[in-house]
From TrEMBL:
Keywords: Membrane, Transmembrane, Transmembrane helix, Transport. The lineage of its organism: Eukaryota, Viridiplantae, Streptophyta, Embryophyta, Tracheophyta. This is STAS domain-containing protein. GO terms for molecular function: secondary active sulfate transmembrane transporter activity. It is a multi-pass membrane protein. It is found in: Membrane.
Length: 701
């Protein structure tokens, strides 16, 4: 390469350094003709120095303000900025201006439909959280109202969900017994909900939503599937009326409780001729024959929901969109039929477990019930952070799914602020953690919702239910609620996704299975910990063990690619070309150096031997070309590794050549004087330029 003082945009020619004099016109003309016929080699010069403050500002903006949320406020008068600020905080003020009666019709139908689905689900989910049934309904009244004003999703339906309810219940009961200390348990639940909201709102306000992306899709699939199995197993208590049931959630403890209850009394049929017709668990509870009818009706509903939602997952519900109301209203119909059946037969007197009393009235204030000091404050904070992150991950994933189906943009940070605010207010109005529900959101989408007004309609119906209808749920059997919960969580087990993970990435499959078995055989918390741990392990493995590839020339082109991917690629005699497929940091710099030069672990030495054996009649390898196109960044440890690699290769009389370093990498190479050590004439724009310089015959072939 030419003079180091030449500008970056300057190009040189191979063999263009022929001396020219004024007296030798003929030689000058000849030389100029030869130079004009040679290809250009672009010079990679020293880039212009960047302003430090500007560089820091750019980095912070790319990290936290990549979508430039302040752009609409630029060059606007103060009043307009105030209006835009309120519209940013409350999106309903923006889209509400264009709201019409036609849109309200779709929202009204969708809101009524999801209300029919959420009411029986909420009662069942409250039991998962070890809360009284009314708290599930409370959580579908206030939070959806808040979200309708602050959320940016048009389709998401807000309320309690199975996974978060199970997680919250299992973590809370590890601290306080929900039976003997009911008041303290509920207070801790409200405290955890408060801190869940604080966590969500903080992540959104400081634009730290990227943190939830550390929980990989594979880990989420496994965690959700394991939670679905665990929730299903927990419903055996309600289905069989077992009174003495384990507080643990793992499959071994649950099955031990069921088998123990059966074998202690040998689960015998007591007096078939008797009208009572009871399957007796002397140490565990009773299963009445009168629960068979509710259970069969719920089983039909399970199959119905399973078919509908599997159809939706495959074709977004296009085939059965007109029949969206069938699976949505099925749970409520099942509850009505089962409740009527129990009431007229008074099966509750014969041992059939029922819901009993549900407190009437809308949400009472719970501000004074939150622990703001004492020993339970830290426990509530810990539980709230975990539950808040899981709820946030589920809601954002659901919101993005339906936003992509309707082709509109979802602001993840606004969603976090909205979800956090609704849970903070919810904790002060006797609600526990609420988030987006996939089953309800799917029904909301298929019912033709247009805006978040469908949540307001649902919330209004739930309010009327709390004020008027709750006494009618007194005789609802627990078995029907258990079946409704089972039907709701069946869709969480995504077999297709697991098969796809196996086909695409075995490590992702391992992460999925680790999270799944952690939840099923240990606990929800352990499964979550395994999911996060495996996700981080994958990131660390990819960062600390980056891939390197041996490159060869694609015939009849000047393109160099991985010889394993393109077997026809030709290796260059006397030149070894390696590509590093990662940034070079302290965590992987030694590994890269060892992969390239260290004798004990040295793959390059094996490559060198292979090269010399393959090209016995050719010169030995004299040049190592490192393609740095994928190297997005390099730190001081990476710089030291390059310097050590250069020195090691010098001892072997092999020259180190770098190609296509990015601006950030090039800045640091020059700032550390590593570029001078390697030689600025050994830094090229492309691999083809480097080969053209040191092996021109091969490049021109």
């Amino acid at each position: 390469m030419g003079d180091n003082n030449l500008p970056t945009t300057m190009s040189g020619r191979i063999a263009a350094d022929v001396e020219m004099t004024d007296t030798d016109t003929t030689n000058a003309t000849s030389t100029r003709f030869q130079a004009d016929s040679l290809p250009y080699v672009h010079k990679v010069g020293k880039p212009p120095k960047q302003d430090l403050l500007k560089e820091i500002k750019t980095a912070l903006k790319e990290t936290f303000l990549s979508d430039d949320p302040l752009k609409p406020f630029k060059d606007q008068p103060r009043k307009r900025k105030l209006v835009l600020g309120f519209q940013t905080l409350f999106p309903i003020l923006e889209w509400g201006r264009d709201y019409s009666l036609a849109k309200f019709k779709g929202d009204l139908i969708a809101g009524c439909t999801i209300a029919c689905l959420c009411i029986p689900q909420d009662i069942g989910y409250a039991k998962l959280a070890n809360m009284a049934p009314q708290y599930g309904l409370y959580s579908s009244f206030v939070p959806p109202l808040i979200y309708a004003f602050m959320g940016s999703s048009r389709d998401i339906a807000i309320g309690p969900v199975a996974v978060v309810s199970l997680l919250l219940g299992s973590m809370l009961q590890n601290e306080i017994d929900p039976v003997t200390h009911r008041n303290e348990y509920e207070r801790l639940a409200f405290t955890a909900t408060f801190f869940a909201g604080i966590t969500q709102a903080t992540l959104g306000f400081f634009r730290l939503g990227f943190l939830i992306d550390f929980l990989s899709h594979a880990a989420i699939v496994g965690f959700m599937g394991g939670a679905a199995v665990t929730i299903t197993l927990q419903q055996l208590k309600g289905l069989f009326g077992i009174k003495k049931f384990t507080k643990k959630t793992d499959i071994i403890s649950v099955m031990r409780s069921v088998i123990s209850a059966a074998h202690h009394g040998v689960m015998e049929l007591a007096n078939l001729t008797n009208r009572s017709c009871i399957l007796d668990f002397p140490y565990g509870g009773k299963v009445h024959c009168k629960t068979i009818f509710p259970f069969l009706s719920s089983a039909i509903q399970i199959l119905e929901l399973k078919f509908t939602f599997s159809t939706f997952q495959h074709d977004q519900g296009k085939k059965n969109k007109k029949l969206f109301w069938v699976p949505a209203i099925a749970p409520l119909i099942s509850v009505i039929v089962a409740t009527f059946f129990v009431f007229i037969t008074r099966a509750d007197r014969d041992g059939v477990q029922i819901v009993n009393h549900i407190h009437e009235g809308i949400n009472p204030s719970s501000v004074d019930r939150i622990f703001f000091n004492g020993t339970y404050l830290a426990k509530g904070f810990k539980i709230g952070v975990v539950a808040g992150l899981i709820a946030l991950t589920e809601a954002v994933a659901i919101g993005r799914t339906f936003a992509s189906l309707k082709d509109y943009q979802l602001d993840g940070n606004k969603e976090m602020v909205a979800l956090g605010t609704m849970n903070i207010i919810g904790s002060m109005t006797s609600c526990y953690v609420a988030t987006g529900s996939f089953s309800r959101s799917a029904v909301n989408y298929m019912a033709g919702c247009n805006t978040a007004v469908s949540n307001i309609v649902m919330s209004t119906i739930v309010m009327l239910t709390l004020l008027v209808i709750t006494p009618l749920f007194k005789y609802t059997p627990n078995a029907i609620l258990a079946s409704i919960i089972i039907s709701a969580v069946l869709g969480l087990i995504d077999f297709d996704a697991v098969v796809l993970l196996w086909k695409i990435d075995k490590f992702d499959f391992l992460a999925c299975m680790g999270a799944f078995f952690g939840v099923v055989f240990a606990s929800v918390e352990i499964g979550l910990l395994i999911a996060v741990g495996i996700s981080f392990a994958k990131i660390l493995l990819q960062v600390t063990r980056p891939r390197t590839a041996l490159l060869g020339k694609i015939p009849r082109t000047s393109v160099y690619r991985n010889v394993d991917q393109y077997p026809a690629a030709t290796r260059v005699p006397g030149v070894l070309i390696i590509r590093v497929d990662s940034a070079i940091y302290f965590s992987n710099s030694n590994y890269i150096k060892e992969r390239l030069a260290n004798p004990p672990l040295c793959r390059i030495l094996r490559w060198l031997v292979d090269e010399e054996e393959q090209f016995k009649n050719q010169p030995k390898v004299e040049y190592l070309i490192v393609d740095m196109s994928p190297v997005t960044d390099i730190d001081t440890s990476g710089i030291h590794a390059l310097e050590e690699l250069h020195n090691s290769l010098q001892k072997r009389q092999i020259q180190l050549i770098l190609t296509n370093p990015g601006q950030t990498v090039l800045d640091k190479l020059h700032a550390s004087h590593c570029a001078e050590l390697i030689g600025e004439d050994k830094i090229f724009l492309t691999v083809a330029d480097a080969v053209l310089t040191f092996a021109p015959k091969m490049e021109q072939a």
